[in-house]
Amino acid sequence: MPEHTKVMGKEWADARRAANVARLGATLAEGLAGRGDITFELGCGHGHWLAAYAAAHPGEFCVGIDLITHRVARSQRKQSLGKLDNLIFLKAEAMEFLEALPAPIILRKIFILYPDPWPKKKHHKNRFICPESLDLLARRSAIGTRLHFRTDDADYFAWTTEFLGAHPRWQIQPEQTWPFEQKTFFEERMKDKRDVIADLVG
Ligand SMILES: C[S@@+](CC[C@H](N)C(=O)[O-])C[C@H]1O[C@@H](n2cnc3c(N)ncnc32)[C@H](O)[C@@H]1O
Question: Which domains, from first to last, does the chain contain?
Answer without folding.
Answer: 3-200 (3.40.50.150)
